[in-house]
Design a protein that fits this description.
By secondary structure, the chain is of the alpha/beta class. Helix content is 31%, strand content 20%. It has 5 helices and 9 strands, in the order E-E-H-E-H-E-H-E-E-E-E-H-E-H.
Length: 209
């Protein structure tokens, strides 16, 4: 396990939570600078939360090689450990695409994680299949946000995944949006913002930005 390149957007001194945002598939150009990841960070940061992004192993300046999602779960655990040691606050996990599929595996079972945001949850992506059976025991608040025309997350399949997941949960389809929320990033941000307000009631009444 080598060093991981990361960026921390510092939060307010009275922050109630910290957040982690994970990026899409590194073999298809995904990094922590991805537009969806950046806009998700901006929304979480608008509540005053410190927000950490990092590059999975082999992406950007992170050491190591891509491990088809196995080692990447450990990368997420390393990031969660760092956030916990730095802030000692409840953590909100947010992952986009590969970052969701990978990060949820680490975050669901981690007692330090208070809530889960899954963006563009991949269920059928270019020959890769994703199983989310581990979510059946996940009782943390969670929200799934996908484009209504997401090519890697057909609505019918995502709904079947959602139905097997216990409450509390929320499913949001952004009309007109594809997997990358192109032209609809503001609607994605609003969905995240509303969910955080509903479940975690942060002291700062922020607006999505």
């Amino acid at each position: 396990m080598g060093k991981l390149e990361a960026l921390l957007n510092e939060g307010q001194p009275d922050s109630t939570h910290v957040a982690l945002v994970c990026h899409p598939h590194p073999l298809y150009g995904g990094t922590m600078h991805n537009k969806v990841v950046y806009h998700a960070m901006k929304t979480l940061h608008s509540f005053g939360f410190p927000v950490l992004r990092f590059n999975f192993r082999g992406a950007g300046l992170s050491e190591g090689e891509h491990d088809n999602g196995r080692g990447e779960v450990e990368d997420v655990r390393v990031a969660l450990n760092w956030l916990d040691s730095e802030f000692h606050l409840p953590i909100l996990f947010c992952g986009f695409s590969f970052g969701a599929a990978t990060g949820l595996r680490a975050a669901c079972a981690d007692d330090r994680v208070a809530g889960l945001i899954s963006l563009g949850t991949p269920v059928a992506a270019e020959g890769r299949s994703y199983s989310y059976r581990f979510l059946q025991s996940c009782t943390k608040p969670k929200v799934f946000v996908s484009g209504a025309q997401d090519q890697y997350s057909p609505q019918a399949i995502l709904k079947s995944v959602y139905e097997m997941v216990p409450n509390p949960k929320e499913l949001v389809f952004v009309e007109g949006a594809d997997h990358f929320f192109e032209g609809h990033l503001a609607e994605m941000q609003k969905a995240i913002h509303h969910w955080v307000q509903e479940f975690f009631k942060p002291g700062r009444q922020a607006e999505a930005s």
